[in-house]
Specification:
Helix content is 51%, strand content 6%. With 498 residues, the protein is of the alpha/beta class. Helix 8 runs parallel beside helix 11. It is globular, with a radius of gyration of 23 Å. It binds flavin-adenine dinucleotide (FAD). One of its GO terms (molecular function) is lyase activity.
C-alpha cells in the first residue's frame, strides 16, 4: 500500500506512516486560482509540503511527489506509472472530500482506504456517541466531557484548580505602557524562496502581501513556535485574549492555528506543552485553562459540528442577509480604526486574532447585512489557517448567525464592545458615543438597525430579552434617524467611503 499524504496531514507520527514506506504527495496548483488566496497561504501550504517530502525521504520513505494542475491529473500520472496501486489516506475533515478522492482513485483502477484522521484529539465516533441524535450541542458540555475522558488538566475527577472556567480572571485590557512579547519569525529558506517566486508568478491576482513571510513550514519550526509561545506569551494569553491594541497584530495569541491545521503540530502535543507549563509552575491556570478550552473545546467541537451539519451549514442564511462585502474588506481603506486595523492584519499576515475575527470583521459584516457565503469566501481566501471544515462553522455559524447550530444568539454588538476591549476608539474619527448624526460610529446605527430588521427571528431567541428591552424604548423619531444612518452607511460601504 502507498500512503497518500494530503497537504494538511504533514506529520510523520500518523498511523499510516508507521506501517508503510511508500508515499504519494500531489501538489495541485489549480485550487489556488479558484479564489484570490492570500499569497502567504499558498506559500505556506506548498513550502510545508515540499519540506515534508524532503523530511520523509531523509527518514527513508520512498516519496512520489507530483506537481500537477489537479488531483485528477496528478493521479493520472501516478496510475500511469503504478497501475492498480492501493492507496491509504487519513479521512480528510472537509465535507465529502474522502468520497471524492475514492471516486478519483477507483475510476483510475486503484483502491483507496480511508482511515481515522489522527491529527484530531477526538474521533467522529466519540462525538457521535456523546451527542446522540440531538442537534443542539453545547460547546461547554463537550469541553468538560473531553477533559474528563482524556484527563487533560484534571486532578482526579475534578478540573485542575476546582473550576472549569477562569474567564472572570481574563477579558482584561493591557495597561497603556504594555508591549507584547515579540512574535517568533521563521525566515524563508531556499525551498520557501523558490515557492515564493512560483506563487508570485503563478497567482498574480492573490489578495494580500507576500512581503513578510514568517510562518513555520516544518515540524521543527512549529515545535519551536510552540516553545516560544509557552515561554513568552502563554502567561498573558488568558487576561489579554479578548483585547485589541493599536499597531499590534499578535498580542499574546499563540499563532499556532496554521501549523496545527497543517498537521505540523498535533492538538495533543500543544495542549500537553501548555498543561506541563502549568504543572511546572511556569504559567497561571487562567491562561492555561483558557488556551486548553480553545483547542480541546472549540477546535474539536467545530470539526464535529461541521461534519454533522454539512452540506446545509455552508448554504445557511436564516437571516436572509444579501449585501456584498463593504469595499473596505478589500482595500483596508476606512476611517474606522478597528476595521482598518483588522483588515490590515489580514492583508499583511493572513492572520487576525480571534476577537478581531469575531467582534470586528464578522460582527461588522453581520450588522451591515453581508451574505454569509460572501463573508465565508473572504475569510477562506484571506487567512493562512483557513480550511473549509474550520472556517465555515466559525464564519457561517458563529460569526454570521446564519444558523443557530453553534450559538443561541448572534455575536452582534454596537461600538461599545470594541471600545471596552481596545484602545481604538480614542483615536478614531468616528464617535463611539454617537448613534446617529455626523461622525457617529458606524457600528451603532447598524447594530440597532440589525436588531430591528431581524426582530422576527431574534426577539424570541434565548438571551436577547435585554437587548429588545432597549429596542422597545426607542421612539419612532429615533428609529427614523437610525434607519437613515444605516442606509447612508451601507451606501458608504459600497462606495468605499466608510
Ligand atoms: P489562539 O488564540 O492562540 O488559540 C489557540 C488555538 O485554539 C488556535 O490555534 C486554534 O487551533 C484553536 N481555536 C481557538 N478558537 C477556535 C475556533 N473557534 N475554531 C477552531 N479552532 C479554534 N480558526 C482556524 O483555524 N481557521 C479559520 O479559518 C478560522 N476562521 C475563523 C473565522 C471566524 C469568523 C472566527 C470567529 C474564528 C475563526 N477561527 C479559525 C478560530 C480562531 O479565531 C483561530 O483559530 C485563532 O484566531 C487562530 O489564532 P491563534 O493560533 O493565535 O489562536
Amino acid at each position: 500500500m502507498t500512503v497518500w499524504v494530503l497537504g494538511d496531514q504533514l506529520n510523520p507520527e500518523t498511523t499510516p506512516l508507521q506501517h508503510e514506506d511508500h508515499v504519494l504527495m500531489i501538489e495541485a496548483h489549480n485550487f489556488g486560482e479558484r479564489l484570490p488566496y492570500h499569497p502567504q497561504k499558498l506559500v505556506l501550504v506548498f513550502s510545508a509540503m515540499r519540506h515534508f517530502r524532503d523530511e520523509l525521504r531523509e527518514r527513508g520513505y520512498e516519496v512520489t511527489y507530483i506537481q500537477a494542475e489537479t488531483f485528477a491529473a496528478g493521479l493520472d500520472r501516478f496510475y500511469d506509472a503504478v497501475p492498480g496501486a492501493d492507496l491509504v489516506v487519513m479521512d480528510p475533515p472537509s465535507h465529502g472530500a474522502g468520497e471524492r478522492f475514492r471516486h478519483l482513485v477507483e475510476s483510475r483502477g486503484g483502491s483507496l482506504t480511508l482511515v481515522e484522521n489522527d491529527l484530531f484529539l477526538t474521533t467522529p465516533a466519540e462525538f457521535d456517541a456523546w451527542a446522540g441524535d440531538t442537534e443542539s450541542y453545547r460547546q461547554e458540555h463537550w469541553y468538560r466531557h473531553v477533559r474528563r475522558e482524556t484527563g487533560i488538566l484534571m486532578d482526579g475527577d475534578d478540573p485542575a484548580g476546582g473550576e472549569w472556567n477562569y474567564d472572570d480572571q481574563n477579558r482584561e485590557t493591557p495597561p497603556g505602557d504594555w508591549t507584547p512579547p515579540s512574535a517568533p519569525r521563521f525566515l524563508p529558506d531556499d525551498v520557501t524562496e523558490e515557492v515564493v517566486e512560483f506563487v508570485q508568478e503563478r497567482y498574480p491576482d492573490a489578495w494580500g502581501s507576500a512581503d513578510e513571510f514568517v510562518w513555520p513550514v516544518t515540524r521543527d519550526e512549529a515545535r519551536r513556535a510552540l516553545d516560544h509561545f509557552v515561554e513568552n506569551r502563554l502567561a498573558d494569553f488568558g487576561p489579554y485574549q479578548d483585547a485589541m491594541v493599536g499597531g499590534e497584530w499578535a498580542l499574546c495569541h499563540s499563532l499556532l492555528s496554521a501549523a496545527i491545521n497543517l498537521g505540523l503540530l498535533t492538538p495533543h502535543e500543544v495542549v500537553t506543552a501548555v498543561e506541563t507549563a502549568y504543572r511546572d509552575g511556569k504559567a497561571p491556570l487562567n491562561s492555561v485553562e483558557g488556551f486548553v478550552r480553545q483547542v480541546v473545546g472549540w477546535r474539536e467541537f467545530m470539526r464535529h459540528v461541521y461534519r454533522r451539519s454539512m452540506p446545509e451549514l455552508a448554504e445557511a442564511n436564516q437571516l436572509d442577509q444579501t449585501a456584498s462585502l463593504p469595499a473596505a474588506y478589500w482595500t483596508g481603506e476606512t476611517e474606522m480604526r478597528c476595521l482598518s486595523e483588522a483588515v490590515g492584519h489580514v492583508y499583511d499576515h493572513g492572520y487576525a486574532h480571534h476577537i478581531e475575527r469575531l467582534m470586528v470583521l464578522s460582527n461588522f459584516a453581520l450588522v451591515y447585512g453581508v451574505d454569509p457565503q460572501a463573508l465565508n469566501r473572504w475569510f477562506h481566501l484571506g487567512f493562512v489557517d483557513a480550511y473549509h471544515w474550520v472556517t465555515t462553522p466559525n464564519v457561517v455559524g458563529m460569526g454570521s448567525f446564519a444558523t443557530d447550530v453553534l450559538s443561541s444568539k448572534p455575536y452582534a454588538s454596537s461600538g461599545n464592545y470594541v471600545n471596552r476591549m481596545s484602545d481604538y476608539c480614542a483615536s478614531c474619527p468616528y464617535a463611539v458615543s454617537k448613534t446617529t448624526g455626523e461622525n457617529a460610529c458606524p457600528f451603532n446605527a447598524l447594530y440597532w438597525d440589525f436588531l430591528k430588521r431581524h426582530e422576527a427571528v431574534l426577539r424570541g431567541t434565548g438571551r436577547m430579552g435585554l437587548m429588545y428591552s432597549h429596542v422597545d424604548r426607542k421612539d419612532d423619531d429615533e428609529w427614523e434617524k437610525i434607519e437613515a444612518r444605516a442606509a447612508e452607511l451601507r451606501q458608504m460601504g459600497r462606495d468605499g467611503t466608510l
